[in-house]
Amino acid sequence: METRVAVIGIIVENRDSVESLNLVLHEYGDYIIGRMGIPYPKRGIHVISIAVDAPQDVISALSGKIGRLPGISAKTAYSNITGQENE
Fold first, then answer.
1. Which of 36, 39, 47, 68 has its Cα between 20 and 30 A from that of 62?
2. What is the CATH number of the domain that holds 10?
3. pTM (2 d.p.)
4. How many domains, the chain?
């Protein structure tokens, strides 16, 4: 199956949703290349970026699940480079 590399940018405004966010990320852990989180106490938010290598539908499902969590927003940027899942 064809995969793409993407980055999901996440803004956490509601700390009560962090446990749910971590459960979703754990569910998709096989596709996650890396994760970086930056607290921004001045604004009371956290900024997280997730790099993934996954089929298009998996990336869309992950981003959608994250974006539906209360107080969390997510946007995805895709690379144009594709590969095969078993590479």
1. 39
2. 3.30.70.1150
3. 0.91
4. 1
